[in-house]
């Protein structure tokens, strides 16, 4: 494993459905090498729970997530939805989009490092809430 790939000390929390979806993404090999290694490690340590047992502050499908770019201090808000419901014009992003895969399973307050199209970025998850 690449020593540059650091995973959180706190395991991510996923439903079994999300876990399986992420495993399928790994199998399709659409992620960068960095993200593939990181996601593989995260899934090895992930806690799988029923969707009714996902804590309110954990990022999953049908949640609104605000992240702050650690380098630029810019804030971004994403509405994470099922892949078939993603509509950019409504700011609805697929849970399988780069930012969706990066933050899924993490809790509000977590620092997430992920390779985005413009390079490796660090984000702080500042707010997680259910979509209305």
From TrEMBL:
Assigned keywords, A-Z: Elongation factor, Membrane, Protein biosynthesis, Transmembrane, Transmembrane helix
Stated name of the protein: Transcription elongation factor GreAB
Membrane-spanning ranges: 95-114
Domain of life: Bacteria
Pfam families attached to this UniProt entry: GreA_GreB
The Transcription elongation factor GreA/GreB C-terminal domain, residue ranges: 56-130
Annotated InterPro entries: GreA/GreB_C_sf, Tscrpt_elong_fac_GreA/B_C, Tscrpt_elong_fac_GreA/B_fam
Molecular function GO terms recorded: DNA binding; RNA polymerase binding; translation elongation factor activity
GO BP term, example: DNA-templated transcription elongation
């Amino acid at each position: 494993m690449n020593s540059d790939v650091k995973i959180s000390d706190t395991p991510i929390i996923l439903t079994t459905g999300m876990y399986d979806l992420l495993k399928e993404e790994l199998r399709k090999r659409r992620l960068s090498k960095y993200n593939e290694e990181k996601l593989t490690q995260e899934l090895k340590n992930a806690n799988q729970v029923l969707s009714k047992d996902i804590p309110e502050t954990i990022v999953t499908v049908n949640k609104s997530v605000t992240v702050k770019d650690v380098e630029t201090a810019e804030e971004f808000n994403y509405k994470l939805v099922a892949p078939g419901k993603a509509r950019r014009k409504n700011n609805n992003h697929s849970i399988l989009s780069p930012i969706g895969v990066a933050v899924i399973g993490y809790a509000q307050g977590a620092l997430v490092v992920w390779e985005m199209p413009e390079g490796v970025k660090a984000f702080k998850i500042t707010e997680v809430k259910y979509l209305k």
